[in-house]
Amino acid sequence: MAKIVVVDDETNILELIRFNLEKDGHQVLTSTGGEEGLHLIRSELPDLVILDVMLPEPDGLEICRRLRHDPATALVPILMVSARGETLDRVVGLEMGADDYIAKPFSPRELMARVKAALRRAKQNQQTSSAGRELRCGPIMLDTEKFQVVVAGQPVSFTPKEFKLLKILMSHPGKVFTREQLLDRVWGFDFNVDTRTVDVHIRYVRQKIEPNPANPIYIKTVRGIGYKFSGDNTE
């Protein structure tokens, strides 16, 4: 059983989600307002947040941004819900740090599939973090327990998606990952995201860790396939 907070100002949608989650054995806490929902999430620290985009001030995207910049909630998985299903809206939600996105109207079956996938990925991440490992390569240190990256002795801010990308690559030095594999591991296999999203996030990561992002020495492009992390990695 997971503790799940649902924030949606449409009461019929809220009750639909609550019914299906409770039917599956989860503890469900709900809110219809942005500020109230943000307070509820921060006080309860749930296992998953289901967050409507179109909320009164602040909207769901702003709430997502605030949660991702708060160390206490930075790793809580967030499933965004909205009547707007355009690609741009999905990408904006992901850039803000959402883990998945479902467009209204949705079926209870699709909702529960995405909830289960998000909880499964979160559990896998927690198992990795609980090992308290530090990944190191040259001046780069990634702390999986503290959700922290240090480059040349200086802490560097990473979004959750950027952090996951770097962690995956550093954990397997020399291994080539296709863009599809990275999409699967970071965004989830069942999420419809263009592979160019991976390229954009790789560029952001390079800007933060590479001495010269235009000529990277750590994250190498394998032409026609994907990316690999180059360098010795000691834990």
Nearest-angstrom radius of gyration? 18 Å
Number of helices: 8
Terminal-residue CA separation = 33 Å
Identify the strand order in the major beta sheet. Answer: 2-1-3-4-5
Largest sheet: 5 strands, parallel
CATH architecture title of the largest domain: 3-Layer(aba) Sandwich
What structural class do helix, strand and pairing data support? alpha/beta
Number of domains: 2
Shape: elongated
Mean pLDDT across residues: 86
CATH topology of the largest domain: Rossmann fold
Topology as a string of helices (H) and strands (E)? EHEHEHEHEHEEEEHEHHEE
Poorly predicted ranges: none
Protein model, in words:
The chain has 235 residues and is α/β, with parallel strands linked by helices. The chain folds into two domains: 3-128, Response regulator (Rossmann fold, 3-Layer(aba) Sandwich); 131-229, Arc Repressor Mutant, subunit A, CATH 1.10.10.10. 43% of the residues lie in helices and 21% in strands. The protein has eight helices and twelve strands. The protein has helices at 11-23, 34-44, 60-68, 87-95, 108-130, 160-171, 179-187, 196-209; strands spanning 3-7, 27-31, 48-52, 78-82, 100-103, 134-137, 140-143, 148-151, 154-156, 177-178, 219-222, 226-229. The strands form three sheets. It has a five-stranded parallel β-sheet, with helices on both faces. The protein has a four-stranded antiparallel β-sheet with strand order 6-7-8-9, covered by helices on one side. The chain has a three-stranded antiparallel β-sheet with strand order 10-12-11. A hairpin with a 3-residue loop joins strand 11 (219-222) and strand 12. Helix 6 (160-171) packs across helix 7. The mean pLDDT is 86. The modification 4-aspartylphosphate is found at residue 52. Pfam families: Response_reg, Trans_reg_C. This is Stage 0 sporulation protein A homolog.
